[in-house]
Amino acid sequence: MDVEYQHLPPPLQGGIFQAKTNTATGVVVLGGSSGRVDVARARLFASQGATVIALRWFGGEGQVPGICEVPLEIFFAATDYLMELGCRRIVLVGTSKGAEAALLTAVYDPRISAVIAMSPSSVVWGNIGPGLDGISWPERSSWTLRGTPLPFVSSDPEWVQEYRDGLVAYRGLFERCLQVHESEIEPATIPLEKTTAEILLVAGGDDALWPSDEFAAAIVRRRAASGLFTQLVLGEDAGHRILLPGETTPRSSLRAHGGSETADAKLGRLAWEYILAAL
């Protein structure tokens, strides 16, 4: 597929792969808390004939420096742009915090046709890094909608760090927060029973960063209770980082991800079959 890469027009930040022939499917690729604009993954999706945005949604010029009260309107605007280009099927592809954003966007934007959420969360969490005011603590929501912060599950400052392979493994922190702040779970739960978008979840059972396998199972149960089907692709030995065909995404040097090169790539290959169907 013959595509060209260009920078997005302001106020959007990032880039877009656009085929020289019109395509009906538009994809928005959202990276996680690393802040990476995932051009390589966007190129992979563009190779399948889609028009693909690799979006910078925090950390850019004029944007919130951390994942702190990020406006969901940023993601609505990406859909606006794809539809202006003639795309009619909009697919959001998010990883980790990007998956959290993608799932929330599908709830509040009925134009979303499908979400591919990799290493997802079933609830909204607090901020990672500072807001526009440069302040990281006290904790605030990761997201806002029409200027109002969304309810979130609080952190636990008393959690004792756990380690794996010399790196901090945060899975236990998130599991503890769900126990300590049980009353916050329902208000913070992403209400995916309210979206008509197709939902594809991809998670590793050995995720050491957060319990994405448990989050994914919770999403499946909640939607099933409303009579909605959710596709879940689970790799028992895979970690937080899922490698789609051809990807060589490096491991984090700051936190444990779990899994292995082999298991992460195996899950990515399996998921790719379902991803192509979603496209």
From TrEMBL:
<dbReference type="GO" id="GO:0047617">
    <property type="term" value="F:fatty acyl-CoA hydrolase activity"/>
</dbReference>
<dbReference type="InterPro" id="IPR029058">
    <property type="entry name" value="AB_hydrolase_fold"/>
</dbReference>
<dbReference type="InterPro" id="IPR014940">
    <property type="entry name" value="BAAT_C"/>
</dbReference>
<feature type="domain" description="BAAT/Acyl-CoA thioester hydrolase C-terminal">
    <location>
        <begin position="70"/>
        <end position="275"/>
    </location>
</feature>
<dbReference type="Pfam" id="PF08840">
    <property type="entry name" value="BAAT_C"/>
</dbReference>
<dbReference type="GO" id="GO:0006631">
    <property type="term" value="P:fatty acid metabolic process"/>
</dbReference>
<dbReference type="GO" id="GO:0006637">
    <property type="term" value="P:acyl-CoA metabolic process"/>
</dbReference>
<protein>
    <submittedName>
        <fullName>Acyl-CoA thioesterase</fullName>
    </submittedName>
</protein>
